[in-house]
Design brief:
Layout lengths: L10 E9 L8 E10 L4 E9 L5 H6 L4 H7 L11 H8 L5 H11 L1
Antiparallel strand pairs: 1-2, 2-3
Amino acid sequence: MAHYIPKLPAIVHAIDTETKALRPNAYILSMGGSTFDIATLTLLGCTYVAVDPNDPEADKIFDTDSGTVAWWNGEGDPAFAPTPEAKQAAWSGTTKIDVALKIVVEYF
């Protein structure tokens, strides 16, 4: 019986987002992305953009969940609460959603 050995990709893109809800249509607070060369374990590039948390256009498109906002404010289990620095970074954006999405799409 032959064994299947998957071929690893040469280049890997990674992305992370912080949001105001846990649903697929959550209001995006920030997006970051990185590209790595797996063979050499080299970072090839990265991008980060923080969205205005009060952007009225984003508010029309995306949902906010009061429970997630409460979590960002440190309510609930303190062991899982974000640090004040993490909240500040995620909630201090000034970029409008259309510009932020364009930045990330152009990067990838």
